[in-house]
Specification:
Strand content: 25-35%
Mean pLDDT: 95
Number of domains: 2
Number of strands: 17
Shape: globular
Low-confidence stretches: none
Number of helices: 7
CATH topology of the largest domain: QueA-like
Largest sheet: 9 strands, mixed
Order of helices and strands: EEEEEEEEEEHHEHEEHEHEEHHE
Structural class: alpha/beta
Strand order of the largest sheet: 2-1-17-16-14-3-12-13-15
CATH superfamily of the largest domain: QueA-like
CATH class of the largest domain: Alpha Beta
């Protein structure tokens, strides 16, 4: 399977640069992976497509202020994007500079503190923060929200509110789980009142989520790794849902990846043996994958040639996704992080 199979042309005018005035005001394209039908809907009607006894699973990660600007002690500007906080004083980061910093060199960031470059791991630099203040506290004080590369404005106070989900809890992501951005507290109450259960997983989204696949053969792509955690309570809610014949709806590809990773690591790869706990996942879901946990997916529209577009193509079927994206472009849906959404019913594989 070739990367070019997942390419499409998107006019720049359809890339949403700002959120809607209200979180729930987006459009929603309903994609039936079973019969291929498409229906233009409103996100505010989402509950009409779910049933009492179903379960929706959100990703409760919280975006950190991961972008920092500074300079080398020897001169030269640098831009640092924290990818993962390792401990109180250590982080892995992408560093942009005219010349890559040398191991053992120091960087001054935000004119407030220094970091030492202690190692390099492929594209990531290991940084030791030379401060008594923890990494997360320094980022909160001096960092900037790392908006996606296709959003052209610098982060504002509006972004600091709207590029976080209302249920975000655990700091560690450098990108928002954007499907969750559509939900407000009233929508969560509406789901519960209909008898729909809500559970949470945590997957700290990395910057790799925005990277296109750069090899021709997708089987040669090396997937980025992300940290996730699934509680025993969430595992039990999934089991109960399946036992009563309900459906599990993942809110976003990150929630889906966490759930399917837990199934992949279980002893027999069936729902009854899902494993709770923390770990790293580099699961790469492409057409032909058999989903073990998730029955329905709510997600935004994704970048051309991206691993996430391959994931939704696996879930709905490649032809169905091509048709859905063509329709969305024709109907002028808003794309990407601040854009509209899709509700996908899974295509079943014999």
């Amino acid at each position: 399977m070739r990367t070019e199979d997942f390419d499409f042309y998107l006019p720049d005018s359809l890339i949403a640069q700002h959120p809607t005035s209200d979180r729930t005001a987006s459009r929603m394209l309903h994609v039936n992976g079973i019969d291929g039908s498409l229906h233009d809907e409103a996100f505010s009607d989402l509950a009409n497509f779910l049933n009492a006894g179903d379960l929706v699973v959100f990703n409760d990660t919280r975006v950190i202020k991961a972008r920092l600007f500074g300079h080398k002690l020897t001169g030269g500007n640098v831009e640092v994007l924290i990818e993962r906080v390792i401990d109180q004083h250590t982080a892995y980061a992408h560093v942009r500079a005219s010349r890559a910093p040398k191991i053992g060199s120091q960087l001054t960031l935000s004119d407030a503190f220094n970091v030492e470059v202690t190692a390099r791991h492929d594209d990531l630099f290991e940084l030791h923060f030379l401060s008594d203040i923890s990494v997360l506290d320094l980022l909160e004080q001096h960092g900037a929200l790392p908006l996606p590369p296709y959003i052209t404005h610098a982060a504002t106070h509006e972004d600091e509110e709207r590029y976080q989900t209302v249920f975000s809890k655990h700091l560690g992501a450098v990108a928002a789980p954007t499907a969750g951005l559509h939900f407000n507290e009233a929508m969560l109450v509406q789901l519960k009142q209909k008898g729909i259960d809500i559970a949470y997983v945590t997957l700290h989204v990395g910057a790799g989520t925005f990277q296109p696949v750069r090899v021709d053969n997708i089987n040669e792509h090396i997937m980025h790794s992300e940290l996730y955690n699934i509680s025993q309570d969430t595992i039990e809610m999934i089991r109960q849902t399946k036992n009563r014949g309900g459906k599990v709806t993942a809110i976003g590809t990150t929630a889906l990846r966490a759930l399917e990773s837990a199934a992949r690591l279980s002893a027999t790869n069936i729902t009854g043996n899902l494993q709770a706990g923390s770990g790293e996942t580099d699961i790469f879901i492409t057409p032909g994958y058999r989903f073990k946990v998730v029955d329905r997916l709510f997600t935004n529209f994704h970048l051309p040639k991206s691993t996430l577009l391959m994931l939704v193509s696996a879930f709905a079927g490649m032809d169905n996704i091509k048709k859905a994206y063509a329709h969305a472009i024709s109907a002028q849906y808003r794309f990407f992080s601040y854009g509209d959404a899709m509700l996908i019913e899974q295509q079943l594989i014999d």
